[in-house]
Specification:
The complex is a heterodimer. Chain A is α+β, with helices and mostly antiparallel strands. Helices cover about 30% and strands about 20% of the residues of chain A. Chain B contains ten helices and ten strands. In chain B, helix 9 packs parallel to helix 10. Classes of the chains: A alpha+beta, B alpha/beta.
């Protein structure tokens, strides 16, 4: 329970007046309340005032749950029928004393979402109990006592079926109690109401109905299967835990928490153990005081409305972060089809405007869905804007000398030009009274708020949103609300749509751009064109067509459309609106875009137009709702919650946002480029980053996305085989950099800022990527049990990469298998022999190749025969792989426990990197290329990465020795390095070092002045950050039949909580530091094993909670949490 | 949709918009104290005055007031050498008099020798030059005495840039000079090993992470130049190259200017030459092989 309140507060201690106590002065995300007596004085009262307060809360995304003993039609009549609109989806009504819950569909129609269904036997027993109690009472008192049967899952015994007490108001409860007691005691039942209750409890026991609930509202004694506790249990399960809401963000209000006439109040049942931490408040008179932890407000429904009004204000101030809001601004905000998330831990905010940072901001604030991505450029543009939209998998070569394919720039669909009285609205002209960009991580929406005052003093308020739909990946949306605050006048809005990429001027980079495709055949007569639509059909020089169909609409706040003109200018189409705006009125612009390409549609233009037609029919609101629902689903499966460090919390959500935005589970022919769809650096090329750094996130939170990414490697096997063949090897050698075909696309030279031309050898020598791909395949298969994938695609990758390694090296005179002239992850050292990472992963790959052959032969012999025949795998070949694996030179020295990173490494110059700290310049820049190659300074985790990936192959002392040796020699010249060091340091128990590296990793894109993000976010580093939290600080390690945990959290992280997909089930893990505790729950079918390092292993079952505590540096046994034992949950605070 | 910086109407030493300068006669002040070294400023000043279409105002600070020919002799000029210029005599403390005249004339520029005393042919600023640089209402070009009176042309301008937006914006005059003369702008960024990275928001320095040099360096170079050009209003047509060096900034700038035969070093500085401040500026002044355009930025 909340810490507010004392053990029992007396009536004179109720919190009076309009000031609410501190515990209530914050915005709650879930507000649940009793209806009769709390929200309204009676069920006949006009609920309009309550409704007026609930609607803004619903619009702000607050989940509202009405809890009542009555049936749904009664509440619908009084409250919910009059609420209409998309916000109604946030309303639920729990009726019939916790027996059922109603929600509302997108058309505001009620839908039963949960119900406790009594069996025929239970129904019969309920009636038997009620009848027996009635008969006993009638027999003893001779009174008219009646049973009401037609109630769901309960029977009501009416103790006072008199006309004057037909429907007593809650306010008259004292009078009612006196009347009931007088009636019962006057008829010879000395114990009165208490005796009736005890009789009912005894009768229920005798009739053998377990779990029966006996309650009373004084007029009735009720015998039922459920009570309000069931409503709260549902709420905690469905609205709180699955959405990652903390219990502290839940408010439960009622009017009868304290005892009445010696009986527990009806709302007391809402204080269930699962809701510990939620804030409880009573507006009832509570004549006997309230239980500990309940805030007693008193004041009845009027006070409850004050409480709601304060919540409205708190949410609006959090939502309407434009602190300078003017009258009408909140109403205007609602003109957009959604509102920003209120909780700042979900928001990345760029205040003001700094022209120099524009490219960074554009990257960080990109919206994407794995199919299409758009940078967060300002719609009206600035001198430094670089708007860009990319479509995954659409590559082309430039018109210049390069033959290397690059991700293509598609048409800019976001550009808007606004003139007020002939004066263009620009950030750099006039004053920006407010300017703020908000990346809403939770909803996947880019918001912008701008109040602009032009040189003549005209103030214009603009709010906009932009999204790339996660529910329908071909869809983009831009909405803008324009409100003239202090003028009436003429406004000109222009939406130019470039036929090319839309960048102007000689500063435009030499990037491949789409060009207009030849005129397509006219649409067939059977399909009408979309009104107001514009269709573009563009293509690459390699023949891929990209079609965009756009529909734009401008309306007044009364819904009246404003006429549009479309003109064709050189190289672009321009939509124009010109109209008279009135002071204080809002005008809304929406632009829906459907994108299709010839990669997935034979007729992309037709597909785009048809898609747009569907979108137009359903409306913008539906697009937004489907999108935000899709994001909610992804967050429910992926959110990592950190309690105690807001900066880390935001960094993790930022990472997860961009990881979710990068993947498309529906397209197995694309992978994720180094900067995903957020920028043009790295040309959209795919590296080992995907498999080693990003893929674990998808494997453990969204297996379909992981599967699609691995299938990209399956489809590109032919190119990998060709590369191996070309270099004189067998099997499959994946390209170090690849695009759509899987062919090698690594540039052969680099031009440094010094003008030095440097030969790039990674495309020729960095071969560990083949083992990295095999590792990801194996990890996905182990974690998902997706046998279909393994048999159809994964096994072939493992076999072909194993075969590559068997041909890559040589068994030499020393009896060892040497792999020479490679580049490991440490790219400072080229053409080295026996790189520890490469050889270690090759050895593992060879072993898995042999294991794959064995498993296929045993479990899927037909598939094995087919594969062996097609790949010409000789019978003895898998055995040879094992022999090669055993002979691979690992560079391990048993005397020191160290792996030599490559042959001769220990003899290189040992440079003290600490002498250069603090340092933000890469060591190869400081020392120069030649010296760094002669030194032990390494670029990134190499041996340390091997230790992490193959953790169980090394004894603890070897892990420790290698980390302590290589960590001080690592220059972290790669953004991939800090997260892996955080992870391994945490696993080794060095929490301080782990936290330092974790913060360094988190700052790669979010740190001030990093600048690195200008060309796009570092998607692999973001994946590394997720791994550092889940696999490092939480110490999660997948086991063959479950998960092992070894948490090492920084002490101020009070809790870390995350879900993990595991073999078709989802585990939720919570790690706490004060007290040290681990909780695990499981969703899905069948048990799983969970273990604590150094502690016991337990099989956990779905739907139950398991807890383990650490005392004296040892983990205690797992215990199933009953929720009733105060000792095990006493200090528990949920993240 | 990069908005291309507008073509400028003139060099604009003060950075004022072209329209704001049209109403006054443009002047460039050249203080001459009669020493041989002082005349090293003249070839540079004449080229800049021609570019600016400005009048060269030669000023000699001395008492008593001299007749014109005597004044010419005092500064080592002949009537022929004065063609196209104006000579003034001022009285009072030299530096203050020069600054006062520049203020009164709303001069766009002061061009002067770094040090004129024969006893100090090498080393830092002379006392007058130092006071003028510190107090001048306009940019100052400092000419090293050793370059003498050789003709001066402007083909390569080196712009040392610490990556801050403030410094980038200060380079507007250099950009306009390059645009007017067709000179090449060599933007020089020096990666410093110590934790000297400026804290100004929007600062762009050498990347901390170079994941793949074949991608990172071209992107970084493009971004650095994009930001610089944008902030100083340099049109893309001006040939601009980026150079990266490591080491001590002052020494690197001097060495770079020597190696690349730079004609002008452009330094953005914060206006203080006190001890332990502006060490880079002092080092460049001390050893510069070519004139230095000093552009003051807000501290």
């Amino acid at each position: 329970m909340s810490a507010e309140g004392s053990a029992v507060s007396s009536p004179d201690r109720e919190v009076a007046g309009s000031e609410l106590p501190a515990g209530l002065a914050r915005p709650f995300k879930v507000i649940a309340f009793d209806w009769d007596g709390t929200a309204v004085a009676s069920r006949t009262e006009d609920a309009g005032p309550v409704r007026d307060l609930l609607e803004p809360l619903l619009r702000a995304g607050v989940s509202v749950v009405v809890i009542t003993g009555t049936n749904f039609p009664n509440i619908d009549r009084q409250l919910s029928a009059a609420i209409r609109g998309p916000h109604k989806r946030s309303l639920h009504v729990a009726t019939n004393r916790g027996s059922e819950v109603y929600g509302f569909d997108p058309d505001s129609r009620p839908a039963l979402v949960w119900q406790r269904t009594a069996t025929a036997e239970e129904d019969r027993r309920l009636t038997e109990i009620a009848d027996a109690v009635r008969d006993a009472l009638v027999s003893r008192t001779g009174l008219d006592i009646r049973v009401i049967y037609d109630r769901l899952n309960r029977r009501k015994i009416d103790l006072i079926p008199l006309p004057e007490w037909h429907d007593p108001p809650k306010a008259a409860i004292g009078e009612l109690l006196r009347a009931v007691q007088a009636r019962l005691q006057g008829a010879g039942l000395a114990g009165g109401l208490r005796e009736v209750v005890e009789l009912a409890e005894r009768t229920a026991r005798e009739k053998g109905l377990p779990g029966v609930r006996i309650t009373t509202d004084v007029k009735h004694v009720e015998v039922g299967l459920t009570d309000k506790a069931d409503a709260i249990e549902w709420l905690m399960r469905e609205l709180v835990r699955t959405r990652g809401i903390r219990t502290e963000e839940v408010l439960i209000a009622g009017d009868e928490f304290g005892p009445i006439a010696g009986f527990e109040g009806s709302d007391h049942r809402m204080a269930i153990p699962e809701a510990r931490g939620a804030v409880l408040a009573s507006v009832g008179s509570e004549p006997s005081g309230v239980p500990a932890g309940v805030i007693h407000l008193g004041g009845g429904p009027a006070r409850f409305r004050e409480l709601l009004a304060s919540q409205v204000a708190l949410h609006q101030s959090a939502t309407d972060v434009a602190a300078t809001a003017t009258p009408g601004a909140a109403a205007a905000a609602r003109e957009l089809p959604a509102v920003p998330t209120a909780d700042p831990s979900w928001l990345l905010v760029e205040e003001g405007f700094n022209l120099a940072r524009e490219h960074e901001v554009e990257s960080l604030f990109a919206v994407a869905n794995g199919y299409v991505g758009t940078r967060g450029s300002l719609a009206e543009g600035t001198r430094l804007s670089a708007p860009a939209t990319y479509v995954a998998g659409v590559f082309d070569v430039t018109q210049h000398s390069s033959t290397i394919p690059e991700l293509v720039l598609a048409s800019d669909w976001t550009r808007l030009r606004i003139e007020v009285a002939g004066q263009e609205l620009l950030l750099e002209v006039g004053d920006s009274l407010v300017h703020r960009r908000i990346l809403d991580l939770r909803q996947g929406v880019l918001w912008r708020e701008w109040r602009h005052r032009d040189p003549a003093g005209r103030v214009t308020r603009l709010r906009s949103l932009r999204l790339a739909s996660l529910a329908d990946r071909h869809v983009l949306l831009q909405s803008l609300m324009l409100l003239p605050e202090n003028y009436t006048g003429r406004v000109h809005l222009e939406g130019p749509i470039e036929l090319g990429a839309g960048r102007e001027g000689p500063a435009a980079p030499e990037r491949p751009e789409l060009v207009p495709a030849p005129p397509r055949p006219a649409p067939t007569a059977t399909r009408p064109a979309v009104a107001d639509a514009v269709t573009l059909q563009l293509r690459t020089s390699r023949g891929v067509t990209v079609a965009l169909a756009l529909a734009s609409r401008l309306r007044t706040d009364e819904g009246q459309a404003i006429e549009r003109a479309v003109e064709s200018e050189a190289g672009r189409l321009v939509e124009r609106w010109e109209w008279e705006v009135e002071v204080g009125r809002a005008y809304r612009f929406d632009r829906l875009v459907a994108v299709h390409t010839s990669r997935e549609d034979g007729q992309p233009a037709e597909a785009a137009v048809e898609h747009l037609e569907r979108l137009r029919r359903n409306g913008v609101q539906r697009v937004v709702e489907a999108h935000t629902r899709a994001w909610a689903d992804r967050w429910a499966a992926a959110d990592v919650q950190v309690d105690g460090d807001g900066e880390v919390q935001r960094a993790l959500r930022f990472a997860i946002y961009h990881l979710v935005s990068a993947a498309n589970p529906a397209d197995e022919r694309v992978s994720i480029g180094a900067r995903s769809l957020t920028g043009e650096a790295y040309k959209g090329h795919v590296f080992w980053d995907t498999e080693i750094y990003m893929l674990p996130f998808y494997t453990f939170t969204h297996p379909p996305a992981a599967r699609a990414l691995l299938l990209y490697r399956s489809h590109t096997l032919p190119a990998a085989r060709e590369k191996a063949r070309r270099l004189g090897y067998r099997g499959a050698l994946y390209a170090w950099e690849s695009t759509d075909s899987g062919e090698e696309t690594t540039p052969s030279v680099a031009l440094t800022p010094d003008g030095e031309v440097v030969r790039i050898l990674t495309g020729e020598q960095e071969h560990h990527i083949s083992a990295d791909v095999a590792y990801a395949v194996w990890q996905y298969w182990q974690a998902s049990s997706d046998d279909r994938f393994f048999v159809d695609a994964g096994a072939e990758i493992v076999l072909e990469t194993a075969r590559f390694w068997a041909s890559r090296g040589q068994l030499e005179a020393d009896g060892r298998y040497h792999i020479r002239r490679v580049i490991g992850p440490d790219e400072y050292h080229e053409a080295v022999d026996d790189n520890a990472y490469t050889n270690g992963m090759a050895q593992w790959n060879l072993e898995r190749g042999a294991e794959t052959a064995r498993i296929l032969a045993e479990r899927w012999p037909e598939r094995w025969r087919d594969l062996a025949q097609r790949l010409e795998i000789a019978e003895q070949e898998p055995e040879q792989w094992l022999q090669v694996a055993a002979a691979v030179e690992t560079g391990f020295d048993p005397r020191t426990g160290l792996f030599e990173q490559f042959r001769g490494y220990f003899g290189l110059e040992d440079i003290d990197l600490a002498a250069y700290e603090p340092r933000t310049v890469p060591m190869d820049v400081l020392l120069g290329r030649e010296r760094i190659q002669r030194s032990q300074v390494i670029k990134q985790a190499d041996v340390v990465l091997l230790i992490y990936l193959l953790w169980d192959r090394f004894p603890p002392e070897v892990r420790e020795a290698n980390f302590r040796y290589y960590e001080p020699r690592t220059g972290h010249g790669s953004s991939l390095s800090p997260a892996i060091h955080a992870l391994v340091a945490a696993r080794l128990g060095d929490v301080a070092l782990a936290e330092r590296y974790f913060r360094q990793a988190a700052a790669i894109d979010l740190g001030n002045n990093m600048g690195n993000a200008a060309g796009g976010v570092h998607t692999a580093a973001l994946g590394g950050l997720w791994q550092a939290a889940v696999f490092g600080l939480a110490g999660t390690r997948p086991l063959p039949d479950g998960l092992q945990l070894e948490p090492n959290l920084p002490p101020h992280w009070r809790h870390l909580r995350f879900p993990l997909h595991w073999k078709g089930r989802r585990a939720w893990v919570t790690v706490g530091t004060d007290p040290p505790i681990v909780e695990a729950t499981l969703e899905g079918e069948g048990p799983a094993t969970i273990a604590l390092a150094g502690g016991e292993q337990v099989a956990i079952n779905p739907g139950r909670r398991y807890l383990a505590r650490r005392d004296d540096d040892r983990w205690g046994p797992w215990q199933e949490a009953s929720g009733e034992d105060p000792a095990d949950l006493a200090d528990r605070r949920w993240p | 949709m990069n908005r291309e910086p507008r073509e400028s109407a003139g060099p604009g030493w003060t950075g004022a918009p072209a329209s704001g300068r049209a109403s006054r006669a443009s002047t460039i002040i050249v203080p001459l104290d009669g020493s041989v070294h002082a005349t090293a400023a003249l070839p540079v000043a004449r080229v800049l005055a021609e570019l600016e279409r400005a009048t060269l105002r030669i000023v000699h600070v001395a008492e008593p007031i001299m007749p014109p020919l005597e004044l010419l002799r005092a500064v080592g000029l002949t009537p022929e050498l004065l063609r196209g210029s104006v000579i003034d005599q001022a009285v009072g403390p030299p530096a203050a008099s020069i600054v006062r005249l520049a203020t009164e004339l709303q001069s766009g520029l002061i061009v002067m020798c770094m040090r004129t005393a024969t006893a100090e042919p090498t080393g830092g600023l002379g006392s007058v030059a130092e006071a003028v640089v510190r107090e001048a209402p306009c940019p100052v070009v400092l000419v090293p005495p050793r370059r003498g009176v050789r003709p001066w042309t402007l083909r390569r301008i080196v712009v040392p840039h610490d990556g801050t937006p403030t410094t980038a914006a200060a380079f507007a005059p250099a950009s306009e000079l390059a645009q007017r003369t067709g000179a090449e702008l060599d933007v020089l960024h020096i990666a410093v090993s110590e934790a000297g990275r400026p804290a100004e928001p929007g600062t762009f320095t050498v990347p901390q992470y170079v994941d793949q040099p074949q991608h990172e360096w071209p992107e970084w170079s493009r971004e650095f130049l994009d930001r610089t050009r944008c902030l100083c209003g340099c049109p893309a047509a001006v040939p601009t190259r980026l150079f990266l060096r490591t080491g001590k900034a002052g020494a690197e700038i001097v060495q770079f200017a020597g190696e690349h035969e730079s004609d002008l070093i452009v330094l953005a500085w914060h206006g203080s030459l006190k001890a332990k401040r502006a060490t880079t500026v002092k080092e460049v002044i001390e050893n510069a092989p070519c004139p230095i355009l000093m552009l003051r930025v807000a501290a």
